[in-house]
Amino acid sequence: MDSREGCTWFPITRIRPPEVIRELINTYDESLDPQAREWWYSQFLATVDAALSQYSAPSGVWYLDYLGVLPEYQRRGIAKALVLPLREQAKLEGWKFALTTQTLENVRFYESLGFRIGRTLVIPGSSIGDVTVYVMVNGFDDG
Length: 143
Description:
Oligomer: single chain
Strand order of the largest sheet: 1-2-3-4-6-5
Number of domains: 1
């Protein structure tokens, strides 16, 4: 794991958050009803993890996990200011990038930073219907 500029990147082989964040996830986990929890682990995470595992590189891949800006601070360039320096540093070190998002607004934002959609996943079976996840990549030469 490498943390710089208040943004944390996890190597693709360590998609799960570090232990300091695990407690927050456990709290979230406990708030889910059993059916939602089962879907989260057996469908959502399994599908996303499998898709991300297709993006690997000998030099390494950084996975952007949990980037969020409070609504009252959005559209001020904060997310861009967090992501671009890391992307540039990783590029200098020969790393590639992957992240997931669920909104087209975020897709457009990441595309403006040089990412592209690597895959679009539709994960069925949640209590709110199908969930679409966009795997965004940067630095891969696979079109």
